[in-house]
Amino acid sequence: MNAEPIKKVSIVVSKGSLEGVYPGLIMANGARMEGIEASLFFTFFGLHAVVKKKMDKLRVATVGNPAMCVPDAMGFALPTIVGAIPGMSAFATSMMKKEMEKLDIPPVGEFIEMISDAGCKMYACKATVDMFKLSSDDFCPQMDKVLTVGEFYELSAGSQIIFT
Asked: For residue 79, what are the domain limits?
């Protein structure tokens, strides 16, 4: 049985941590590299990926992250309480960024620019923009438009919708 190839994806990014933003960026980039039409819809703290003053300062969430392991991603589970120690998030973020750099994964701002240049459309959730009192000046130049959820669904007609 031959499955019909995916032609269009709409990816919702709702988490503003480093490990919350990168899956959506990587999936959008992969889609564009495969010739698949892609769009990113940033909502709640996922908006941090496209807010100029936040996008390159995202951090790894260490508190409440049951998957956090040391000394590496396959090590032993870090007790949640240890994640609350001052400096743990900065340390985990630094370690993650070093590993991503080894794989030539660009920083968020550069990745956003690269994905946009590849033809991915980027949208911000209007309700979240209003709630956070943001304006178009707050966003990176790659942001295409602020949309309501209804407008996002309209633009996503025929897409596979992926929530990260």
From this structure: 66-106
The residues, ordered by sequence, that sit 6+ positions from 68 with a Cβ below 8 Å of its Cβ are 60, 62, 77, 78, 83, 92
Which residue, 137, 144, 18, is CA-closest to 152? 144
HSE, side-chain direction, 13 A CA sphere, residue 119? 11
pLDDT of residue 53: 95
Q: Mean pLDDT over residues 68-80, rounded?
A: 66
Beta strands in 80-150 (DSSP E): 121-125, 145-147
Residues 6+ apart with CB under 8 A from 70: 76, 78
* Structural domain contains residue 61: no
Is 1 inside a domain boundary?
Answer: no
Let me know: does 11 contact 24? Beta carbons within 8 Å: yes
Q: Work out how many domains the chain is built from and give that number.
A: 2
Residues 96 and 124 in one domain: no
